[in-house]
Amino acid sequence: MRGGPAETAVRRPERALARRANLHKSASLPSIALVEQREGAEGAGRGYGQGGVQGAGIQLGERYEHSPIVWRDGTPGPPDTWDSYTPLERPGARAPHVWLGKDHALYDDFGKGFTLLDFGAPEEAGRFALAAYTNNMPLTVLALEPPENSPYRSKLVLVRPDQHIGWHGDSAADAEAVIDRVRGA
Q1: Tell me: domain 5-182, CATH 3.40.30.120, correct?
Q2: Which of the residues 58, 67, 98, 115 has the least number of beta carbons within 10 Å of its own beta carbon?
Q3: What tens digit of pLDDT does each residue of 95-124 get?
């Protein structure tokens, strides 16, 4: 990650919190041995990996809502379960995947550093770009039309290098403070 030394130092405890949450969630998973014993090998195969992603909440739903390098929005989070994943635009959550065109995923356009998704607020995006430049923070700005049925609701979404959302909103009035927070300054 290229945000700064403080950001890198924060990542270790941030990941530790996620590991503990995932361990707690996974404790409720039935063991494959018990499923096989109860339903035979076919039952174990049906429950693990066939017809969907088992444990999608653990795999895709990892959220860092309480991280010091995430700008919280003050709203309560939805349930965080091991067995389901709902893409959502929320600070600390994984940036939702969307298709921008045939064989063209939004993730394909993310920069190597931070990425600002601009869904119709170019002047506000410019404030973020200036704040990032002033603080020597790598930032790619993507001016986009909101995809149909998109989980993205805000005009601006700041995505960290690990593809989790660091901030979202419609105004860049606090761009400098947001940039400082997400880069760990």
Answers
A1: yes
A2: 98
A3: 999 989 888 999 999 989 999 999 999 999
* Spatial CA neighbour of 54 closest among 76, 26, 77, 90: 26
| Amino acid found at 108 | D
Tally of helices (H runs) and strands (E runs) in the chain: 5, 6
For residue 10, give the 3-state DSSP assignment: helix
Measured torsion, CA atoms of residues 126, 131, 135, 137, in degrees rounded to the nearest 10: -50
Q: How many CA atoms lie within 13 A of 64 on its CB side?
A: 24
Class of residue 175 by CB neighbours under 10 A (exposed 0-12, middle 13-18, buried 19+): buried
CA 36 to chain centre: 34
* Nearest C-alpha neighbor of 91 from the set 176, 161, 25, 158: 158
Token representation of residue 131: 């704040």
Pairing of strands 139-143, 114-118: parallel
Pairing of strands 156-159, 114-118: antiparallel
d(CA 122, CA 144): 10
Classified as helix, coil or strand, 167 is strand
